[in-house]
């Protein structure tokens, strides 16, 4: 058993090339073979968001606090909340982040295929970010 204590987890700034606004990444991990699992805890300050990206096996997000927005390319933008769990299918271009007025934290889980767990793309425009939210 390997236990990583909270006090020992590393926190880094989300790279400017992949994030708009302030985001921090804590406890980034990759499990040894034969597992392909990788993950981290990502915190977004109000207004922060990822760039468009995709994952070869999809991505699960478990929201631990706050309010956020997400969108798959060509689809509606959705709002999500603390306690929600999101699934983005394999190879779907998408983004996620906090709303302009609320921060948001999630646990991100995805798998590695051929040495990569994510493909980063262009940044989300303000027009896409501020588009209307789809009502349930």
Radius of gyration: 14 Å
Largest sheet report: 8 strands, antiparallel
Task: Give the topology string: H per helix, E per strand.
Answer: EEEEEEEEEEEEH
State the helical fraction.
under 10%
Mean pLDDT over all positions: 97
Total strands: 12
Structural class: mainly beta
How much strand?
Answer: over 45%
**Number of helical runs?**
1
Distance between the termini: 42 Å
Shape: globular
Q: Which spans of ≥5 residues are poorly predicted at pLDDT below 50?
A: none
Question: How would you concisely characterize the structure shown here?
Answer:
With 136 residues, this protein is mainly beta.
Description of the molecule:
This protein has one helix spanning 126-129; strands spanning 11-13, 19-20, 23-30, 37-44, 49-50, 53-54, 59-72, 77-81, 85-88, 94-98, 104-111, 119-120. It contains one helix and twelve strands, in the order ββββββββββββα. 3% of the residues lie in helices and 46% in strands. It is globular, with a radius of gyration of 14 Å. The strands form three sheets. Strands 1, 3, 4, 7, 8, 9, 10 and 11 form an eight-stranded antiparallel sheet that branches. It has a two-stranded antiparallel ribbon with strand order 2-5. The protein is mainly beta and 136 residues long. The longest helix is centred in the C-terminal third of the chain and has 4 residues, at 126-129.
């Amino acid at each position: 058993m390997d236990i990583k204590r909270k006090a020992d987890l590393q926190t880094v700034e989300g790279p400017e090339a992949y994030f708009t606004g302030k985001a921090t990444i804590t406890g980034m991990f990759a499990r040894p073979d034969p597992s392909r699992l990788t993950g981290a805890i990502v915190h977004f300050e109000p207004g922060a968001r990822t760039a468009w990206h995709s994952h070869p096996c999809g991505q699960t997000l478990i929201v631990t606090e706050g309010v956020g927005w997400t969108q798959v390319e060509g689809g509606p933008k959705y709002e999500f909340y603390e306690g929600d769990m999101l699934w983005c299918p394999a190879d779907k271009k998408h983004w996620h982040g906090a709303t302009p007025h609320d921060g948001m934290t999630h646990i991100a889980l995805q798998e590695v295929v051929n040495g990569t767990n994510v493909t980063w793309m262009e940044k989300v425009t303000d027009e896409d970010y501020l588009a209307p939210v789809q009502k349930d």
